Structure formats: structure tokens, C-alpha cells
Amino acid sequence: MRLILIGCEYAGKTTLANNLRNWGIPLGKHFHMDDGDFTIPDVTMSPEDQKTMSNLSPVLKERFQRMVIFYHIDVLIRSNDCILGGFHIEEKIYGPRYYHPDIGVNYHRYVETLLPSDTILVNLKADSGVIKERMKLTPHKYQLVQPHEVDEIQDEFSYEFQQSNIVNKIEFDTSSLTAETILDTFLNKVRPMLTPKDMYESLEAISTEDLAKRLAQY
Q1: How far apart are CA 75 and CA 217, in angstroms?
Q2: Are 5 and 88 in contact (CB under 8 A)?
Q3: What is the pLDDT of residues 136-154, one digit of tens each?
Q4: What is the mean pLDDT of the chain?
Q5: β-bridge pairing 32-34 and 168-173
Q6: Domain locations in the chain?
Q7: Which contiguous run of DSSP H or E holds residue 52?
Q8: Would you say residue 205 has pLDDT above 60?
Q9: Which of 71, 118, 126, 145 could form a disulfide with 175 if both were Cys (CB 3.0 to 4.6 A apart)?
Q10: How far is residue 34 from each of residues 38, 57, 156, 202, 217, measured CA to CA in Å?
Q11: For residue range 35-68, what is the model confidence (pLDDT) as tens digits?
Q12: What are 1-43's pLDDT values in tens digits?
């Protein structure tokens, strides 16, 4: 599966990505994961590097983001199983708002013309009250989205999701989902878009009884 996960901060992208990684390991599906590469600072960096990235000028931040995005087009092409968190759409929304206010992003639709045809765009959303509660319970060290921005940010992600030229698209609400149920919800929704290879591997992951029930639906 080639996946681009988008949505407002705290919508559940990292939880889904981590669950997919763990789900794939026993199946021999080793996802190439870049969940934080498109956020400044990248949370996988050392504290020193995070501080350096945060202090870059707006011009350098924009240039860095653009290079990282175009580099990952090749990553997506070369990786049969890949998860990119945020990617070009997150930069379209967050870039001018948080990183480089005087520099817009106008290449995001072009990026989509370069992606493999089986790429799947996934938009995660949640009730604004739920997202605000998640902010309180598990605050991010370098949090970008503020409580008063949640509704507007979610609207922007929904708009970019709808406007995207990526053919395979799904979205779902994580408000009532837990870390344990978000994966099953995703797998149920994504199944019609899977390649034969992905479908076989997905079915291998479930019980024989559950498999019989799901096959009866087709």
C-alpha cells in the first residue's frame, strides 16, 4: 500500500501509521514510514537539530520543505509499502500559516501528477471538541495548531482532500475510535482500493471465521 495520511494535528495520523506498521510486520509488509518528515521540526530529530530547524529563516524553511517533498516522490515510487504523513497537502496548509507566511505553495497539484496510480489519500478528521481534548491530554512539544484554529484547519484539509487529483481517496472520523479500533476501521474502508497483492496480505491477517464473513460480502 502506498498511503498519504492527512488531517489536522491530533486527528490520529500517527496512531494509524504506527498500527499499520505493526500490523504489516508479521505479514512481511515493512512499510517505509515518514510520518514527521514534513513537519518543522521533525520529531524524530535530536533536540539540538529540532531547535536548529525551528530557528531557520522562513526562506530556508520553505526551500527545505520543497526539497523534502520532491525527494519523497521518488521514495513513494520505489516503495511498494509506504506511509507518508501529511506530505504535500500538509505543506500546502501549514507552510504559509506556520513556516513561511510570505511564501505560498503552488506546486501541490503538480506533485500529484508524479505519484504512482495506486497511491491512496486518507483524510482523518474528528470532532473539534475531541481534538481539543487530545491537545490537553497528550500535548505535542512543538504543537502547531491552536485550539481556536481547529475548525478552520479541518475545513482546509477537507477542501484539499476534495480537490486532490489522487483517484483513490477515503476519509473517516476518528472521534469515537481508539488506538485499537482505528486500524480495523481503516482496513475496512481501504479494501476496495487494494491491489490483488495487498488484498491477499490483508486477508491473511484475519481469522478464518472473520475471513469467511468478509468474503461473503463480495
Answers
A1: 35
A2: no
A3: 999 998 899 999 999 999 9
A4: 90
A5: unpaired
A6: 2-193
A7: helix 47-54
A8: no
A9: 126
A10: 8, 24, 22, 22, 34
A11: 777 999 888 889 999 999 999 999 999 999 999 9
A12: 999 999 999 999 999 999 999 999 988 889 999 877 799 988 8
Short-list 33, 14, 35, CA closest to 24: 33
Cell numbers representing residue 60 in the block: 530556508
The three three-digit cell numbers of residue 5, written as one number: 495520511
Helix (H) or strand (E) holding 125: strand 119-125
Rounded to whole angstroms, the Cα distance separating 158 from 168 reads 15
Asked if residues 81 and 29 have their Cβ atoms less than 8 Å apart, the reply is: yes
Q: Which fold has domain 2-193?
A: Rossmann fold (3.40.50)
Question: Whose CA is closest to 97, among 164, 35, 36, 149?
Answer: 149
Rounded to 5 degrees, what are φ and ψ at 202?
-65, -40
Residue type, 212: A
Cα 147 to Cα 62: distance, rounded to the nearest angstrom = 25
Report the pLDDT value the prediction gives residue 44, as an integer from 0 to 100: 83
Q: At what angle do helices 182-190 and 13-24 cross, to 10 degrees?
A: 80
Q: 57 is written with which cell numbers?
A: 529563516
Residues 201, 207, 208, 214: is their CA dihedral positive or negative?
Answer: negative
User: Between the CA of residue 28 and those of 7, 91, 145, what are the distances in Å?
Assistant: 28, 31, 36
Q: Which pLDDT score, from 0 to 100, does residue 201 have?
A: 60
Against a cut of 0.90, is the pTM above it?
A: no
